[in-house]
From TrEMBL:
InterPro entries per the UniProt record, alphabetical: Aldolase_TIM (IPR013785), OMPdecase_AS (IPR018089), OMPdecase_type-2 (IPR011995), OMPdeCOase_dom (IPR001754), RibuloseP-bd_barrel (IPR011060)
Keyword Magnesium: no
Similarity comment text for this entry: Belongs to the OMP decarboxylase family. Type 2 subfamily.
Pathway given in the UniProt record: Pyrimidine metabolism; UMP biosynthesis via de novo pathway; UMP from orotate: step 2/2
Catalytic residues (UniProt): 98 (proton donor)
Protein's name in the database: Orotidine 5'-phosphate decarboxylase
Species per Swiss-Prot/TrEMBL record: Streptomyces coffeae
Amino acid sequence: MTTAPFGARLRAAMDTRGPLCVGIDPHASLLTEWGLGDDVAGLERFTRTVVDALAERVAVLKPQSAFFERFGSRGIAVLERAVADARAAGALVLMDAKRGDIGSTMGAYAAAYLDPGSPLFSDAVTVSPYLGFGSLRPALDAARASGAGVFVLALTSNPEGAEVQHAVRADGTSVAASVLASLKAENAAEAAEGRLGSFGAVVGATLGTAASRAGAELTVDGPLLAPGIGAQGATPADLPGVFGAAVRNVVPSVSRGVLRYGPDAASLVEAAARMADEVRAVAE
Ligand SMILES: O=c1ccn([C@@H]2O[C@H](COP(=O)(O)O)[C@@H](O)[C@H]2O)c(=O)[nH]1
């Protein structure tokens, strides 16, 4: 590995830029609101505007792969360009792809997002542990080898997530608690040296006290991606209540709550800065 581990790069970015992650989610409705066509040209203009406005300012940009995949290969080409441009401008790119499959197929997903030779290589990727945490091993190993990161869905921001994530296993722990404990084990070496690990959890900012109800220990010694701020109803003020002492490792994520201020670049910058200020006020 020639690059520093993701956890170290993320901590440095959070310290210099603040911890905010802005999602690139080109919803059809947003393309229309921005006066763009719901087509590849609209997708490209939207994506380029967000990257140009924010990649030099925020710690993390999180393209939502689904919105690019719906345009087929030409949408993926836009995504590839966005990843490269955002990284070149200094943002860390978290590919929100939520992949999860049997281990052998997981290896191919890892090659797509975590192999530096891939056109979609990203600083980190979201994955789903519901084929068993062990099925994620190829992604965890690939990330370790390339200095990338992995964010595992643990307690998602949507209300439906609880039916799976709060389910209690034969050993009496919840599914979410078990995912979080597995992540903590992955980060053990970095934690022993006082560094932020590269293996993070997705924990919704919308959760209220649900994490403690699921018996989930949020201190995984890695980053905690907190989506749900803005359009899903959570605010930065909710973060201390959801995360407690772990708030220092939280990367609050907002997509529509910033994107709705486009297409004017200055308005996007202002919206992200306002959100970052609100986050700073509660996270320090
Ligand atoms: O638990 C989760 C995991 C991922 N997401 C993703 O984050 C954004 C949220 O968009 P908003 O417009 O800020 O609501 C979106 O890409 C989701 O797929 C999540 O919301 N919750």
